[in-house]
């Protein structure tokens, strides 16, 4: 980022802050400058002052002796397999396979090849600069130390010394190479909070290992690090326009550490203040329905996981969070159970960085089933909840709280609408046919003034058939380093909605900032129909609004989308983005679709559908285009694959109606079509592109 661009970004960022936030940030910057004298360099770490600690330091919140016997065999085998991979030095982080995990370099980014300066004062580092830090997500992800909990879990299950010893080696290495305020791992509170949570669980899983006390409570280096982490969080709190999932992670980490390691003079004060912060910010970040206000599905799961682990820790310590906070956490997981499709997949709304809190099982790209299994053990599953399979996480965490929490007022029927969040799910009834699942987006643009993790996706739809993405949300792909890709995956044209005048509905101000938010109003919603409109284009001349209605007909296995332009005439682009497994052919205003079936209904015959496109627009098919960027799907952060995008262009006058029909009836009858006879005629799924390790596109 050039000096001029940096100044422009700061000006835009300031414009999204209140006067009170500006004053607070100015004060925080002064504190950060003053704290430079508190930095500890690697060569000074042995002589750094020890915190005031209790003479008797015990870790009492341990797992029951027989908890390991209750872990299902499938989970046990997967954990051990992953732990063995780690012993060999292999692990995957955000789409990149690391082979240096025997002795990892905590400052190296394998995407760019950049290594940040370990001894530089943390608050002088520009973490947004790839020249200074490389791809910061890759660097931070490793130092969350979440690869150590699978190793510790493997030790808990098997007693094999190699697993515990590798954990100890990595902890000592990280603690030695990352003294207080030195290097990039002290630049972000969310990273500090997540590390604390993993310190807690590593200590818990290794409780019976003979060397654990020497690693933690009788280790001056560990005591310094535990104190430094909590001291940092007590001083630097995400506030104002940044008080999203970051502040939840900071509060959860501080609360769990002060409960599990109450060894310091400040522990009681830290526990009380962090519990208050967690309860306040969970309520602030969550709609009453239980939906996370960031309206990014992945962060909903992340915040729920943070809240659940922190609440369990506080309960075990004898200082439980309030009944209202437990009720809110239950509402979060009940809403998760309501949102998933028949394959237990969540929506793909908004940003996703695949953030995890603690890995007690082999990592899975979709962690919602694990969170539902854990929540079912803590609260009890409702009759309408989807079935889940117990795993190590649900067994181990619930063993700490053997009595389920009874939460009054839980929904008796599966909700289809979350009015406060503007989310409506249209779905066919449960029967022998593949489920048609449709998410309709009629909610706010995002959370707080910058809406950091929002996409310009008002009135977009996501449609799945039997759990397969048919009309797909594109995902996220990247956060840092590739601004043109970051902009595309957040743009209106990348979503299943209408773009007016070649611009997005909401105005982007940076990779995590929006300057103007489209406002959406739901007009009608039921189990089978939905109507809403947004004002993202009222600033055009002449002004215009977009209104969309979606109707699901279960008997005909079809979905109808009606778009109405209210106001002046404009050039538009209507986009429908297909999932990466869907093959397509344009045929006289119609797209013929085919894809392989998944799950129990696989018969060997491809599923098919017919997408009748609105007349009057010029339709084209795009796949894996880079000039312009179009026709991409991101299965996870750092990964993208080509996928078909259908784009209709034209000029629409006042009150023009565009009608689209997606007909699944042929698939419901399991009838073959010409698509299955000539599959080579249709664009095939392409090779996945993972960051810039494998490929670099313009």
Describe the structure using short key phrases:
single chain; 698 residues; alpha+beta; Glycosyltransferase; Beta-galactosidase, Chain A, domain 5; 8-stranded antiparallel sheet; 19 helices; 33% helix
Detailed description of the structure:
The radius of gyration is 26 Å and the shape is globular. It has 19 helices and 26 strands. The C terminus is likely disordered. The relative contact order is 0.09. The strands form 7 sheets. Strands 11-12-13-14-25-18-17-16 form an 8-stranded antiparallel β-sheet. A 5-stranded antiparallel β-sheet has the order 3-4-5-6-7, with no helix packed on it. A hairpin with a 2-residue loop joins strand 22 and strand 23. The chain folds into 2 domains: 328 residues, Chondroitin AC/alginate lyase (Glycosyltransferase); 274 residues, Beta-galactosidase, Chain A, domain 5, CATH 2.70.98. By secondary structure, the protein is an alpha+beta fold. Helix content is 33%, strand content 19%.
Topology:
Blueprint: H1 3-15, H2 19-34, H3 73-88, E1 91-93, E2 96-98, H4 130-133, H5 136-143, H6 148-158, H7 161-177, H8 189-205, H9 212-215, H10 220-235, H11 245-260, H12 267-284, H13 297-316, H14 323-339, H15 368-379, H16 392-400, E3 417-418, E4 423-427, E5 436-441, E6 461-465, E7 468-471, H17 483-490, E8 498-500, E9 507-510, E10 513-516, E11 520-525, E12 529-534, E13 544-553, E14 558-567, E15 570-577, E16 583-586, E17 590-595, E18 607-612, E19 618-623, E20 625-626, E21 629-630, E22 632-636, E23 639-642, E24 644-652, E25 657-663, H18 665-668, H19 674-677, E26 689-690
Antiparallel strand pairs: 1-2, 3-4, 4-5, 5-6, 6-7, 8-15, 9-10, 11-12, 12-13, 13-14, 14-25, 15-24, 16-17, 17-18, 18-25, 19-24, 20-21, 22-23, 23-26
Helix pairs in contact: 3-6, 6-7, 6-8, 8-10, 8-11, 10-11, 11-12, 11-13, 13-14, 14-15, 15-16
